[in-house]
From TrEMBL:
Gene Ontology terms, MF aspect: cullin family protein binding; ubiquitin protein ligase activity; zinc ion binding
Any GO BP: anaphase-promoting complex-dependent catabolic process
One cellular component (GO) term of this entry: anaphase-promoting complex
Anaphase-promoting complex subunit 11 RING-H2 finger domain span: 1-27
Protein name: Anaphase-promoting complex subunit 11 RING-H2 finger domain-containing protein
Domain of life the protein comes from: Eukaryota
Pfam families for this protein: zf-ANAPC11
């Protein structure tokens, strides 16, 4: 999970996308 969190930190797009599935990124609760 750390690498994905790190990846999201590098994204500056208004609508960042999941690097794995290319879908619109949604943060899981918790």
């Amino acid at each position: 999970m750390h690498c994905i969190v790190k990846w999201t930190e590098t994204q500056n797009a208004a609508r960042p996308q999941c690097p794995l599935c290319r879908q619109e990124w949604k943060y899981a609760p918790g």
